[in-house]
Specification:
The chain has nine helices and 18 strands. It folds into two domains: 182 residues; 112 residues. The N and C termini lie far apart (68 Å). With 318 residues, it is α+β, with helices and mostly antiparallel strands. 29% of the residues are buried. α4 packs across α7. The chain has a five-stranded mixed sheet. The protein has a five-stranded mixed sheet with strand order 13-14-10-18-17. A two-stranded antiparallel sheet has the order 2-3. It holds the Pfam family DUF6175. Keywords: Signal.
């Protein structure tokens, strides 16, 4: 009887320990980077955008290294695999953001990718934890005010938050102050992260797919194809219904020149050569791209991505 009771008690524990965990990367928030002067300007098709300069922040601010290291450790202690942002930045090739451009080989049309998008595309974390903090001083005591935001790296939706101010302490070390402030919040915070990932595992991750046409292509999304002579836009919509998880997607916009799908649920994994591999937005979009290249469409096209959760297919040429 004792063995049976022990086995029953162990089953939930074993199931939890075998559950897949999301990959996480801790990043300083945009607010922290702007407040501390770690920004750079990026030319996005003629529009100047101010974005965080993560590389300089990690090189120059030792407090950032300490804070990220402490949060990484606290998450790892709870079984969450983390990607170290500093290491990811170092592994990206030193290519200027102005050269990180894609263009049509025939028309010369361009689509820009910011350095932040480039980082996220390489790191491919499931969840980003944005970290903001400030140190408060009252006489000999110090405390820390913090804000943790868990963001779905693909949809940019906030999925968990933890914010508060730690009790005043005589401690002077920033990691000690941070741990004292965060420790009572970290359990519920990681529970919400795991619940979100469990939903992704069952229902697919949420991405956006857009189909556009180059202006020199002689067709459009209202052209008729196939034996039934249906409009291309509706045929693409039918493909999306058949290939998204449980047919879950939303057609946000549709004209003769573009069709925009958001809240598209794609599977987390796919099988290739008997092995399970991670599915991302680009890989999912490539399936639609192949569908459009094949008969009866025979439409040459090009895929571009922005960040982790957005892909655009341009019809008419590479």
């Amino acid at each position: 009887m004792k063995r049976i009771i022990l086995l029953v008690l162990l089953v939930p524990f074993l199931g939890f320990s075998q559950a897949k965990k999301p990959t996480i990367m801790v990043v300083p928030s945009d607010n922290w980077c702007v407040t501390n002067g770690y920004t750079l300007e990026f030319d996005n098709q003629g529009i100047t955008e101010v974005i965080p300069d993560y590389k300089r922040a990690f090189q120059e601010n030792s407090d950032l290294l300490l804070v990220v290291s402490k949060i990484n450790g606290m998450m790892a202690d709870r079984g969450f695999p983390l990607k170290n942002m500093e290491s990811e930045i170092k592994s990206i090739s030193q290519v200027s953001a102005l050269d990180a451009m894609r263009s049509s080989k025939t028309s010369g049309s361009e689509v820009a990718e910011s350095p932040v998008d480039q980082l996220l595309n390489q790191a491919k974390a499931d969840i980003l934890i944005q970290m903001t903090w400030s140190v408060n001083k009252t006489g000999p005591n110090r405390s820390i005010t913090f804000n943790l935001q868990g963001l779905d790296a693909y949809s940019n939706k906030q999925i968990a938050t933890a914010a508060g101010t730690g009790a005043p302490s005589f401690a002077v070390e920033l990691p000690v102050l941070l741990e004292e402030a965060v420790v009572s919040y970290i359990g519920p915070f990681t529970d919400r992260l795991q619940s979100h990932f469990d939903d992704l595992f069952l229902n697919g991750r949420e991405v956006s797919i857009t189909v556009k046409r180059w202006d020199d292509w002689d067709g459009d999304l209202e052209s008729y194809y196939g034996p039934a002579q249906e409009e291309l836009g509706f045929l693409i919509e039918d493909w999306m219904a058949e290939n998204s998880v449980n047919g879950r997607f939303n057609t946000r916009d549709a004209t003769e020149n573009l069709i925009v799908f958001d809240q598209v649920r794609i599977p987390l994994y796919f099988e290739r050569n008997g092995r399970q591999r991670a599915m991302d937005t680009r890989r999912f979009a490539s399936l639609l791209s192949r569908f459009l290249r094949d008969s009866p469409f025979n439409i040459e096209n090009k895929i571009t991505t922005r960040g982790l959760g957005e892909a655009t297919i341009f019809l008419g040429s590479k």
